[in-house]
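$ fold --in a.seq
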Amino acid sequence: MTLRLESLGVAYGPTVALATIDLVVPTGTTLTVLGPSGSGKSTLLRAIAGLEPASGRVRWDAEDLTAVPTHRRGVGMVFQDHALLPHRDVLGNVRFGLEGRGTDRTAATARARELLTRAGLVGYEHRTVTSLSGGEAQRVALARALAPSPRVLLLDEPYGALDRELRDRLMLDVRAILRDAGMTVVHVTHDHDEAFALGDRVAVLHDGRLEQVGPGEEVWRRPATARVARFLGATNGIDGTARSDGTIDTGLGPITGAGTDAGAVQFLWRPEALRIDPTGPWRGTV
């Protein structure tokens, strides 16, 4: 089964927060939505979950979820701030979503223990959530979201509040947990490393508009627009004229292998893409 977004849009009066988004997320895959702050990433998740009035359609295969309330859409959400219940212990937090659906307490407890084991939290069942580290609290939040077996999991910058070392370790652990569960995931982030490490496909969002969608390597190596290229670190640029064979004539000399259409172009590159040619015509001292 496949999650489909068809012309999904969100507007606040004359202000467009999300403009006609079309996306397909096949079952068992992770789509990471990458963009700067204010680009509409969290708005997109809220629209999928039914927490934001939106135009267009949200479908699960042929099933139209547009008019379905949030609690019946089969979505799970994990937020940056964990949103754990302080008056419940770890086991009680994971069990919470199941109890709300009327699941038998014994079955809910068994399911919660299973997920805590998968999340590497055996022995944490009766710990208070206020005693947990940031990484432990995020694992509990993930287990709670997975407990009701949602059709799709929505991750809203879940690692943003963690330090770099913990974030890198945790996101790889979480990726393994989600792939083991065969979970369909839409994960939004502003962090490049996170997006390309976790996503089967990457979508770049800017000012509420979808700039590019594709496999991570393709998006990284062949940005579709100058704005995507600059956002992904190609901050150096030079104007030039492309020939029919793909060579670009620039003030620095010809650039070969660009593979672009003939005409006026702007060639953008990342700083780390440059290499010193010891046989080149220029000489100088830095």
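$ fold --in b.seq
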Amino acid sequence: SVPIQQAGMGSLANPKLAGAIANAGGQGMVSWNGMPPAVLAAQLDEVRRQTQGVIGVNFLVPDLEEEREYICQGLEVAATRANVIDFFWADPDASLVDRAHAGGALVSWQVGSRAEAVAAADAGCDVIIAQGIEAGGHVRGQVGLLALLDQIIEAVDVPVLAAGGIGTGRDLAAVLAAGADGVRLGTRFVAAEEAGAHPTYVKALIAAEAEDTVYTEVFSVGWPDAPHRCLRAAIEAATAFEGDVVGERFSAYHGKRMPVHRFQSMTATQDTTGHIEAMPLWAGESVGGVKRLQPAAEIVTELVEEAEKLLRRWA
């Protein structure tokens, strides 16, 4: 079997999607998103009612030092309920890894460089995710995935998953042939029925190709100095929009509906309202692999079957 890990995906990384991917043999993921510990516990208990498969919790921690105590409260809840705790957007931190291990979970850390990968291994991480610049959403990598994989695989002794630009079985086969132990997918799962992405967002992904994505820092309200990849059309629509508020969304962190400001870093779900086309439509260079809205299990099966067929042919 091929390890397929679902990416963090912000508010799309919900219990329904995580459960469906885990039941299909992948690793489903719920995003912490700063939600209170009790809310996170309820979400993870909901996933566990759906599946006995492998589930993880993604902790996006750009403000680690300021929020350490609050992050650790979430970690305490997550590590006893999930199989894997996944960290992104901070320097690898041994004390967080130790806390997750103490709760019984394995730890993965998504990195964008060889130095970061070595630091993650030294911090005690069980799995490292190498993220290339092709990735959608927030991007740590500064070089292409294959070049990065090359650097990281020879530098660490733990399993390495490949992330960024993987949307078809051919992509999956290519990175496995290059030495990756598995993959991490985001863009393709945005078009999973269970993700609950806004229909306008899904439609835009289906119509897009790799060259329609842009590596940028445009959507930086609420999260400055964080490069990301999204659809060029979203930047054009947000730039042309007149006014400060483009819509409304539900925030798990605040527990209520909140305004979406122009150029704000957020993810458009089905309950987001307003000018969806002017919100950040995150997309990796793998977006050409998104052909239609599908059940998550069908996506996993399609990827694995196509990859296995190619790998047999290449063997």
